[in-house]
Task: structure prediction
Amino acid sequence: MSNILVIDDDDGIREALKAALEYEGYVVSTAENGQIALDLLQSGQNPCFIVLDLMMPVMDGWTFAAKLAEDPKLSQIPFVVVSAFEDKAQNLQAKDIFKKPVNLKVLFDSINKWCTDKGASHG
Result:
């Protein structure tokens, strides 16, 4: 079963994405900021995909993406940015960049392109 990590400081958005992804058959973990997400990843959680917001307290999406890129193991995890500030995400290594509110079909298409049932990324 593919595991997705949703990182967003907005409880409503985070929970809505979690519910929608679970309905699609994914196992979903959530974090309200980049530091919590990084802690989850460093403790061994291995999602096949990350949905990342940019504007968050403690550790924002830009910092999280930089930390991800610095770690050889974590840098292999594909991610998309979902943000009201999608124009500020151009320099990140995101697979896709979506403006909030995100079209779920488009988001699912992106996730399906990068996730397999084995939970490993490919491509």
